[in-house]
Amino acid sequence: MIAPTAALWFLPFCLPVAVWVAWSDMKFMKIPNKAVMVMAAVWAVVGFLAFPMNAYLWGWAVLGIVLVAGFLANAIGLVGAGDAKFAAAMAPVFATGDPRLIFALFAACLLGAFATHRLARAVPPLRRALPDWESWNRKDFPMGLALAGTLIFYLLAPFLAK
């Protein structure tokens, strides 16, 4: 799990990016490259301040590994390109974490986001309130919602575990 002090460093920067990614993916079914670049910039600056140098450098390695894995997953149609790029940009934040916790958290966020999105799009007043959301009409799922949730809940975990 991320140290509480590091989580406090990241939360003010990651929260708006995560909301931007989730909203954009639900509305347009696209994660903007600018959001990906902002997330990478957050790691470049905040990661340098919040983590020891070896963990900071491992974060960059994790970013590269997740980017390659994401591009391969995109090439075979498992995820969208924006999902792959955002997952890579947010991956360094998880570099010092327990992989079991991270994968369990992602699974929970994925299931919760999927169920919530599918239920929300079945509610007529909500669909009328947001008629131009692309994700209401597509069979594929806005994975940015689950990725953003995973990032935020991971950063909140040190405070929720007490």
TrEMBL record:
The keyword Membrane applies. Pfam families: Peptidase_A24. InterPro entries: Prepilin_IV_endopep_pep. It comes from the Bacteria. Keywords: Membrane, Transmembrane, Transmembrane helix. The chain crosses the membrane at residues 6-23, 35-51, 57-80, 101-121, 141-161. The keyword DNA repair does not apply. Signal peptide: none annotated. Residues 15-115 form the Prepilin type IV endopeptidase peptidase domain. This is Membrane protein. It comes from Gemmobacter nanjingensis.
